[in-house]
Amino acid sequence: MNVPFRVDNCSIERTLDIVGEKWTFLVLREAFTGVRRFADMQAMTGAPRQVLSARLARLVEEGLLRKQPYREPGQRQRYEYRLTDKGRDLYPLLVALMHWGDRYLAGEAGPPVLLTHRDCGAPVEQYLRCADGHEVAGPREITPLPGSGAALKSA
Q1: CB atoms < 10 A from the CB of 40, how many?
Q2: Pick from 23, 25, 49, 36: which is nearest to 79 by CA?
Q3: Is the pLDDT at 1 greater than 50, yes or no?
Q4: Whole-prediction pTM value?
Q5: Residue 109 Rama label (left phi>0; alpha psi -120 to 50; beta)
Q6: φ and ψ at 112, to 5 degrees?
């Protein structure tokens, strides 16, 4: 696909500036499964303490997570990390990464995790659709056009 224009303010690049790092995706993976506390996230991701602390701080700063205080009896105040609407909107991206990994990187035994619809138990699938409801099979069926916020590069 030949894109007839280039933008200086690419949305993909700006998104990757926030989430384009392994530990960030692993933190989000855990947040989507309901893990909220630092120690639990560290145990589930294996992230070094300093790295995890930095990633959580950045996700809070960017508005993908919010900190909520809690206190266990006899302990100091600590924080849980909860997804915001902005953070929850990244879920399809993580599902797409997981499905790609399942298709191309899973071992002979198959995918390690299956996503199913809670109400009916059917496997979760992802599709691209246009606003008129047509399924889009891939990039060859898409025409990129400059959006209203495009800052076009000069040739």
Answers
A1: 14
A2: 36
A3: no
A4: 0.85
A5: alpha
A6: -75, -20
